[in-house]
Amino acid sequence: MAKTVKEPVVEHLSLKERAERGRAERDEVPPSAHAEWALPPDRRDPVELLEEQGATRVPELVPVRYGRMLVSPFTFYRGAAYLMASDLAGLAQTGLNTQLCGDAHLSNFGAYAAPDRGLVFDVNDFDETLPGPFEWDLKRLVASFAVAGRDRGFKAKQRAVINRAVTSAYREAMWENAERRTLDLWYSRISVEEILQAVAPQASAKQLKRAEKNIAKARSKDSLRAFGKLTETVDGELRIRRDPPVIIPIKELFAPELHDALEEALRGVLRSYRATLSEDRRRLLERFRYVDAARKVVGVGSVGTRAWIMLLLGRDDEDPLFLQFKEAEASVLEPFLGASDFEQHGERVVEGQRLTQGANDIMLGWLRTNDVDGVDRHYYVRQLWDAKGSALVEFMNPEALTEYAKICGRTLARAHARAGDSVAIANYLGRKDTMDDALASFAELYADQNERDYAAMREAVDSGRVTAETGI
Known about the structure:
The chain is about 50% helix and about 15% strand. The chain is of the alpha+beta class. The termini are far apart.
């Protein structure tokens, strides 16, 4: 007899009760309390925390990660989600939880293709996703703009406008979401065309041309383009092109006598992943056959986690599908917010993404596998390129970065509203700009802290305590 799974009872509060909950949290932790940041006397050494995080990563790639982080205080911030989670845990926090991105800096937002092939803009990194207080994501996002503004050389007054714009847009969008019907909110998404129309009146002709060029480039990024860029023919067979240490074909990582067993293991990995897809997408995947795989170094904060790319072919040699298998470890938030409800971290990432994104990659799935070193690891899977594009922050002037700040603020609010209580969060934030001012102040104080942590990391490299490889 099948075991009956008891579903939890879902509480349905009235609109009034939800609003009162938000206002009660506001009385308990006033928005102005979020302006504070001071170095705690017992704060752990930031380099020690990064070394702790690197203990489970590919040893030869950890110096690459440090090298990428040390390019600038901004790239350091991108890799320092664990440090900031540790810091946020010691601050006042609301009890208004939602599904957090967990690493909501401005470079983790971007464009990608929805299943209907329309280009949408959304949060696009969920490695650290976990339920938690909504303001943790918001603080990380605002602080990322403060750090980026300094990186661009903007003045303090210009940065203040940008920083306030993030929370102001988030707050206003949360009120709009609170007033939407439930299905309307669930179906909502932000298209790239809408964004262009919104920013066009404030943008120069040069900025619009650059944005349109960037969008066109994103549209062209798909498996076919990856196929042309990342593959070559070797002895009459298609293979992924080596580009060490960024891309190393899997057969170069293991002795020749292991290759046959390795290919069989990879086909087993595909079968395990296939089981997590819906039936229609399983049928789609079954139309492709395995050809080759390689290890690929990705991102900044992710460097050192195991990431693989896999080439599959469909009807012929001009019908490719590139998949990325990315290792999923415990979220950096878990030591401070508690363990995930999902035992499998790949599933944690996928379900967090499905819950908060307006549209998902059709190939999104996960698996658990016993790697060749005998260690049980978790992975999530997605298409390698699917019209993915990021904002060119390095070319933005203060006005353009302000507009981008508003877009990211609204996008985060929509994600949080899907997974959390938009009515309670809106009533906590209020109609006035108290929270806007508080987080703008916090962002600058935390940008100071980020610069101190960056300097500590630089000193650790200079002293030989840790090794960094640059230019990779």
